[in-house]
Amino acid sequence: MTLxxxxxxxxxxxxxxxxxxxxxxxxxxxxxxxxxxxxxANLVLHKTxxxxxxxxxxxxxxxxxxxxxxxxxxxxxxxxxxxxxxxDLEEVSVEQILExxxxxxxxxxxxERQRAKALEGEGDCSYHRGCLPRRLLALxxxxxxxxxxxxxxxx
Length: 155
Known about the structure:
Its main location: cytoplasm. It is found in: Cytoplasm; Cytoplasm, P-body. The termini are far apart. This protein has a 6-stranded mixed sheet with strand order 5-1-2-3-4-6. It folds into 2 domains: 100 residues, SH3 type barrels (Roll); 33 residues, no CATH class. It has 3 helices and 6 strands, in the order βββββαβαα. By secondary structure, it is of the alpha+beta class.
C-alpha cells in the first residue's frame, strides 16, 4: 500500500491484479481480477463471475473476460478472500438462483400493481407519489401554495 494519494482514476492503478467486487448501475454484481483500466475508468476484469443474491442464497454465473464501461460502475472494492469463504449465505446452482430471482421479481411487480390499484381512487397515482386529489383543487390558492398538485390523468 502506498502512502500517497493518486487523484481520479489513477487511484485504480493500486487495484491492478487484485480480486474486486464491482456493483453496476443495472444492479448486477461482478467479481473478477482487475487487469486493465483507462482514463475513463473503463475496466477489464478477468475470471469474472456474476453473483446473484436473493435473500440468503447466491449463485455464480461464470462470465470470463468482462469489459465494463466506467460510467456503469457504482461501487468498486477489493475482496478479502479469507472473509469471502466465511459468508453465511447458501450457494445454489445457477438455474435455482435464476428461478428464485424471477419469482421474487414477479412478486414485487404484483405488489406494486396492488399498491397502484389501491391508490387509484385516492388521487395518488403510482407514478407521482404524493400528488393531491382533484377534490382539493377547489381550495383557495393560498391553501394550495407550496403543495404539489399533479396534472396527470389519475386525479
